[in-house]
Structures are given as C-alpha cells and as structure tokens.
C-alpha cells in the first residue's frame, strides 16, 4: 500500500470516462448473464425478449427492467438470490424506515469488495493506517456498523467499534484512544457536541479528531458546516444503502463538491420519477442504481426513491466518477401541505442559519379546524429568558421559513435537550393529520 498516494485503487479511481464506459459495458453484460439465475429477472428478460447482445454500452441499461423495493418485499426473504444460499455468508435487513424490512444477501466476495469500497472512501478523505477510527453508528442489521468496521480494518486503521449511543463513553473513548476519525449519523454528532459542552470537553483541545464520515440520513450543507465548526474537523458526506451493499456507494472527496458514486461498481441513472425517462445533468430526479459486481443479490435499475442530480463527471481530485448532489430526501419524505411540496431538509437549511438555534428540530403536521398546519419545534442553543428577544427571534425564524416553503408554519422555540433524539436515523416529521377518505 502506497501510503502517500491519494488513491487506494488508482487503477479504478483514475479511469477516464471512456475507460469507465468500457468497464461498465463489460460488467453490465456479466451482471445480465448472472441475473438469469434469478427467476424474477429471467422471466422479465424473456418477456422483454432481451439477450446479452442488446448490451453494447452502459446506456443500454435503459433497455432493462426496473426493480423496486416492492419487488424485494414480494420476494422476501431470499427470492432475489442469484447464488445458492450455501454460497452466502451474511444477510443484512434494511432498517425498514419506510415499511416492512427487506433482506440483502452477501457472499464472501461481496463482503470483500464492500470492504474495499469503504476503504477506498476513507483513504480518499485522507485517512491512513496511523489513524484511529471510531465507529459510532449502530451495529447489527444496520449496514453502517459492520460496513465501516470491515472497511476501516481493510485500510489498516486501529478501529474502535463503539456503536451508537452512550455519549459519555463515546467521549471517553475519543480521549483515551486518541480517536482521529468518527463515523456517525449527523443528527447524533450535534447531540454529542452538546454533551461535550456539558462535560467541559473542548474537541479541538481535548481530542485528536480531524475527520468525520457523516451519512445515512439527509442533512443540509448548513448542518455539515455546523458540525465542522463545532468539532474543528472535516465532515465528509457518505451515502450508502443496504440494497447496494451498505455504506461505500458514494462519498465526497476532499474537494467536498458532491458525492463520487463509484461507477466501477454501479451504473448511475437519474430519472424523472413519473415518466421514468432520464433527466438531463443538473436536473433533480430519482436515483436509479444497477449493481455491477454484486454476486449474491445483483439488482438491476433499482429505484432508490432518493432525489438528487448530477453535478459533474470530472473533478480536480483526478477521479472521473460521477458527482451527485447531496440527497434532497426520499420521494416519500416529501410533505404535501395545502398543495405545497416540502422536504424536511428545506426547513433544516433555514433553521441552521440562526446561531441562536441548536441543531435538533421536529416538524409536526396536524389538522386543526379542518386546516392542515405545520409546527416546527426547534431547540435553542442557549437558555433565553428575555421574552421580547424570544418573540422577535420566533418572528424572524417564521419569516425565513415562509420565504423558503411559501407557507407560514407555527414556530416554537424550546429549551435544549427537550426534543427526542434517536440513536439511529433522526425522525424529523410526525404526521398527525386527519386523512379524509
Ligand atoms: P432504510 O431504507 O431502512 O433506511 P438503509 O440503511 O439501507 O435502510 O438506508 C438507505 C437510505 O438512507 C438511502 O436510500 C437514503 O435515503 C438514506 N441515506 C443514506 N446515506 C445518505 C446520505 N449521505 N444523505 C442522505 N440520505 C442518505
Ligand atoms: Zn473528487
């Protein structure tokens, strides 16, 4: 391992667009053939009269059928396996944020490649075997635990599998073990910082922290900046999903100009969620991923429901793997209030602009006297006794939110620590509206 190189896998990371295209065509053909082992796909290929000869470029993926989360549920648990179960060594089940769990199988080769993917990302942001990596995310079925664990070990760092929660213990580990890098969900890190403050711990002076990998949930650029300022670290956006392996699918490089999605492992499409036609670069649409190297459960044109856009296909870092914008949210995170479409991240972006506000917030939707309303509760960074100040701050936040979402929410400033914090992905929206049939 060349510890000085900015690349862990230069032969893949620095491919030209042309080479990426060639490799993807080859791997898409292999994936097509491999998928014939899955009755679900074999049947579809037959119905659509498809053969491997139809695949001569990565764009030919558009000839292939889509796969949805519902397909995974309908074939639960092992219906989409492309290899016999005895070849599989692990399964992960998605956390079921949006419904029934689904199962993803892995062979030993899948796990090896997944570890390589995660290691590549961690290397890309400057981590080296001399770093100490604390993984403060849930373990078990959630892929953020074992995914980062194996990836960090693959890179050769000393790993601290701290898991989620227990902030006092997290802080002690950071201090005692000289932790330099942490992986966690962003909503948890802002809470951790508050605990550090309560304990009189200054992360800049009392720890060696320098790099964070933050992901698994949507977060705004403002939230990232906040985390960087709080801890004095660089925080890199990490995108993953169980269906594609877990973390490691997309990651920001040191330029922090979008997520590089690894095109030696996936074909990335952005489609209009209604027409399913590709949208031009720069336009927001649904992310659709085709896995190119998965052995146990390859997925073709998987509709992620995540909304994003292409930012570019080159980068000053020397990697030409497509750069995607941070996720706006999932199509099912979208709130429709009085006919207006709103994403939680839009609210977050505004709240984070007020230094008087802390990072934890909760959006509640209710029906009052037949009107749908939105209440935004947000914690204050400091206690505020001055009623006039509180009132004018509430007004200013309400106005800023109205400018963004075009509706006037009810804003409630609450004291620090009074809103719930989840150990895993943050729950930002509670919908208590009456549903009229
Ligand atoms: P579940 O689908 O049950 O939440 P996963 O852990 O597989 O289980 O979650 C994958 C999803 O998490 C993605 O589809 C996306 O919605 C979200 N996600 C993961 N990483 C990020 C990120 N960096 N930014 C925004 N959303 C993310
Ligand atoms: Zn880059």
Written description of the protein model:
- It contains 12 helices and 21 strands.
- Strands 4-3-5-6-7-8-9-14-13 form a 9-stranded mixed sheet, with helices on both faces. A 4-stranded antiparallel sheet has the order 10-11-12-15. It has a 4-stranded mixed sheet with strand order 20-19-18-21.
- With 437 residues, the protein is of the alpha/beta class.
- The structure holds adenosine-5'-diphosphate and zinc ion (ZN).
List keywords for this structure.
Rossmann fold, globular, 31% helix, alpha/beta, GMP Synthetase, Chain A, domain 3, 21 strands, 4-stranded antiparallel β-sheet, 437 residues
Helix and strand arrangement:
Blueprint lengths: L9 H4 L3 H19 L3 H9 L21 H6 L13 E6 L9 E5 H17 L7 E4 L7 H13 L2 E3 L6 H11 L3 E4 L1 H13 L4 H4 L4 E5 L5 H11 L2 E8 L4 E7 L6 E3 L4 E6 L13 E7 L10 E7 L1 E3 L10 E2 L4 E2 L4 E3 L2 E3 L1 H8 L5 E12 L2 E10 L6 H19 L4 E5 L14 E3 L6
Parallel strand pairs: 3-4, 3-5, 5-6, 6-7, 18-21, 19-20
Antiparallel strand pairs: 1-2, 7-8, 8-9, 9-14, 10-11, 11-12, 12-15, 13-14, 16-17, 18-19
Helix pairs in contact: 5-6, 7-8, 8-10, 11-12
The chain binds adenosine-5'-diphosphate and zinc ion.
Adenosine-5'-diphosphate binds next to strand 7 and strand 12.
Average pLDDT: 95
- Top CATH class of the largest domain: Alpha Beta
Cofactors and ligands: adenosine-5'-diphosphate, zinc ion
CATH homolog superfamily of the largest domain: ANL, N-terminal domain
Shape type = globular
Low-confidence stretches: none
> Which CATH architecture of the largest domain is right?
3-Layer(aba) Sandwich
Task: Give the helix/strand class.
Answer: alpha/beta
Number of DSSP-assigned strands:
21
Largest sheet: 9 strands, mixed
